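Notebook entry, structure prediction.
Reason for the run: the old model in the group folder had no record of what sequence produced it. Starting over properly, with the input documented here first.
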Amino acid sequence: MALPAVLFFGLFALVPLLGVLVLSFASWDGLGAPSFVGLDNWFRVLERPQTHSSLMLTMGFVALSYLVQAPVALMLGVFMAGQQRYRAFLSVLFFLPLLFSSVAVGLTFQALLSPNYGISSALPFDWLPAQWLGNPQLALYVVIFVVAWCFVPFHALLYQAGVRQIPATIYEAATIDGAGRVRQFFSITLPQLRYTIITSSTLMLVGSLTYFDLIFVLTQGGPGSATRILPLDMYITGFRNFDMGGASVIAVILVAVGLSLSLLLNKISGSSKMESDKAGL
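New structure, fully documented this time:
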């Protein structure tokens, strides 16, 4: 039964990945015939200051994105699983950003943050920066906000589904015992959402390593290299500098970092044991 899925995964995931790995040992401008150069691409890319800068920027981007998205998604997911009369209407509003394409979101925020006709010029507040995306000190944080605005709804949906699987009798018993909402959240909701948190965190952290289209539309890696994370560095190296071998090296580094991060999360969380988080209910 699993054979078609395995074949599909091998054809569209493993084969291209193997091709990228082979290409990382070749010199190719995207037009002519590739020529084998051994480890020259690896030494050249790993010795570039831009690679080190992009790698550190990527790690910071992943960490900050998680710190912003995780608590907001958790709070929204718990709220949307409630029974408030206005919950359904607000849930639709919270979910809307997930329906928009990344290009449309990027172009919209570009207009909103424009120094000429954006919110800085429209609102009579002198403390608003004139340059949002053009300021190297602010650009990365603006990008993190826009990314969170786009992808928090997806993770909130995961948490909403997880909360609704928790039996209501547990909360009723806790209420009888005198536990308030805050105590119930930390003593019941969070422990029962353990594997939902692991799944969401894995998708959030590993997914942050592959953000390209939204950041490309917003800043194209600028100003300077303030938002040039590894996926953008890979694109610029391969399609602007016509260095497909160097871009393949960066792609392999991204795969290695993402795989290591995913395995580390599974190891720390103990999710590989696959025990039920509803045990004892």
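Summary: Residues 49-80 form the longest helix (32 residues).
The old model has been moved to the deprecated folder.
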